[in-house]
Amino acid sequence: MADTHTQSSGLDRILTLEIARVTERAAVAAARLRGHGDEMAADQVAVDAMRSELNRLPIDGVVVIGEGERDEAPMLYIGEEVGNREGAKVDIALDPLEGTTICAKNLPNSLAVIAIAEKGSLLYAPDVYMDKIAIGPGYPANTVALEASATDNIHAVARAKGVAVNQVTACILDRPRHARLIEEVRATGAAIRLIGDGDVAGVIHTTDPDETGIDIYIGIGGAPEGVLAAAALRCIGGQMQGRLQLNTDEKVARAAKMGISDPNKIYTMEEMASGDVLFAATGVTDGNLLHGVRFTRDAIITHTIVMRSSSRTVREIKARHQDLSKFD
Ligand code: VTB
Ligand code: MG
Ligand code: MG
């Protein structure tokens, strides 16, 4: 039975520490294949590892953002029931290897990520694109908006931060679809950090600009990654908006089946992840906020960030695993 303190504030807080094991294990599995050039293999081992650890958690969980539909993803598919089924009913968003290509090339910022939330409190987003904008904590409400131009958003960030525009850095996925956006941001004088993949990390990086050098995330990435990023930002603080890119009838219909009636809706961070949310990410490759997994002669070292929205606690866990059998 949960005590009154934990009951009054949502999820059982012991889970905040428990979920670290889930991402640690996925990250270690993927890290063994860093730089091997085989994205599928790295992804598969991360999925397997995450699933087996997840099934030990004292939860009665359902994957709502996962690896795909049951017929296309044998494990951790949307709708899959996970956990030991003895705990609270929760919804789960996960990406066992966010940035498969990054891992395959051993470039920065691939992560194993998971969010656990009270039932019904995550946006059930289909696997389509999402237009996103995010900034970290400390800005006045509504500093940025998806409906405003990139130019206006960059200027608003500079103004609120009290710096010149050329001291602002925007993180953008390096994709042909962003050619015009990139041109526009460059014209403002702001700097751009182009990333090959990994926009969950890109959004999280806005929360610590002194460390990461990134002030704002803008552009179109995966919708599942958008919900995961919103969950993280809710725990740390910050602002985010997202709009699903439902540009075909098929996508509109698919979204409708998941309960989305307005295809043009702009979701706030709170609408993508409400209620009490736990989030964990373990670095697979070295990154701006998290170290990648280290294999030493007698231990495996992992670096994880775990957080909880109701208390806004952000913990970093650097773990030295000496019983290596659990990673076999
Ligand atoms: C982004 C990126 C992810 O998907 O969300 C991207 O951050 C969007 O899709 O790491 P495209 O690659 O088609 O642009 C990933 O690359 C993979 O999940
Ligand atoms: Mg994945
Ligand atoms: Mg991904």
TrEMBL record:
Any matching Pfam family: FBPase_glpX
Q: Which reaction does it catalyse?
A: beta-D-fructose 1,6-bisphosphate + H2O = beta-D-fructose 6-phosphate + phosphate
User: What GO MF annotations does this protein's record show?
Assistant: fructose 1,6-bisphosphate 1-phosphatase activity
Cross-referenced InterPro entries: FBPase_class-2/SBPase
Coiled-coil stretches noted in the UniProt entry, renumbered to this chain: none
Source domain of life: Bacteria
- Annotated keywords: Carbohydrate metabolism, Hydrolase, Manganese, Metal-binding
Task: State the similarity comment.
Answer: Belongs to the FBPase class 2 family.
Name the UniProt record assigns to this protein: Fructose-1,6-bisphosphatase
Write the lineage as a comma-separated list: Bacteria, Pseudomonadati, Pseudomonadota, Alphaproteobacteria, Hyphomicrobiales
Gene behind the chain: glpX
